[in-house]
Amino acid sequence: MTKQSVAIIGGGISGLAVLHYLKQRLGDSVEITLYERESKVGGTIHSFKEESSLFEWGPNGFLDNQPASLQLIEELGLTDQLIEAAPNAGRRYIQMNGKLVKVPMGPLDFFSTPILSSNDKFALIKGLFKKNISTECSIYDYVSQRFSTNIAQSVVDPFISGIYAGDIKRLHMAAAFPKFKRSGSKKARMRSFKGGMGQIVENLYLRYKNHIQLNSKVMLDGLKATVTIVSTPAHAASKIVENHNPALAQNLDQMPYAPVAVAGLLFAQDSFKQRPDGFGYLIPSKENKDVLGVLIESNVYSGRAAEGQVLLRVILGGAHHPAIVNDDKEMIISKAIKEINSIYGLLANPVKTFVKLWPKAIPQYEANYPQWRKIIADLSSKTPGLYLCANYLDGISFNDCITNAKSLAATVII
Hints:
The chain is an alpha/beta fold and 414 residues long. 34% of the residues lie in helices and 21% in strands. It has helices at 13-26, 67-75, 107-112, 118-127, 139-146, 149-164, 173-176, 198-208, 234-241, 246-252, 297-300, 329-344, 369-380, 398-411; strands spanning 5-9, 31-35, 47-50, 53-56, 62-63, 82-84, 92-96, 99-102, 190-193, 212-213, 227-230, 257-268, 280-282, 291-296, 309-317, 352-363, 386-388.
């Protein structure tokens, strides 16, 4: 009798996590192979180390309020490699009219903050007691109805840019934040690894490398697997399934993505007129900049830069500025340096720079997402043995990817 097999296409965190959970569940009773078209696994998660600096291509951490992620980390023996964001990184800022304003972290800060007018503060308090505000609308409409348009534009907009790099007038509230309806979630801390987020990817690869084929571009009709799990971005998944399921391919190709450029700037500590402090800052879209925000990486986590150095990560592009994909690396660095100079004042140029451009970085859960999600589920079910698992389905975060991979691996029918 021929041994049953599972093919996982895509070696991002979703695919790697599915591989881990399937090996846990099935052991060697089923042949499991992960195919990755690139020369490395991890997708957007990659920690680039050079001399004393550590630059993250993608996410720089995760919130520790989801049990599946912490359980996976424990299973991989990485618990002792976890680090927390530094306490002083709790200071966060929003840019207003080219100046930084501290995000209120308590009642006293709230009442004194210039981010909101007196009317907005009253609207915020009043809105906390409003009920039956539908989440089946855009984030902008939801926040405007519950609180005020200025709260939507000045407070919510920059934070959504920091998560989705998206447009709050287009993103669907319930789809983008399904956990918003739930209560009782524990307070979360920002965590990463001593070796960066890439450490968990490297660990998964080394553990399962005998089941991983790199530099392998495969199509659904070229595989003879009993079960195939496609864990690539939607546009790549569309190409993989198009010969087997054209309707599914067509719908997958409709998922919009926001482009993001990540610029790393390593400075000597005395390069600034005003020393960068806290976690960093976010920029509302009404500021009309193609910079979404700035993270002071060396303030957030230890080991990201040498003593006497400051590492910043400047995030550019997003749904409001898709033309970032047309910029070369030099232009991206120039824009990043200009932004830093406008806020902190530069006395010297960076000693090292890094750039990573993601033309299709983050899937956008826009107005039609709930209907689109149902169509995808229905169409994929028409191809026996086909499963989809990626961050365009049911959550874009690291935690979402782990949770969804665990759930899928438990339900795969062999």
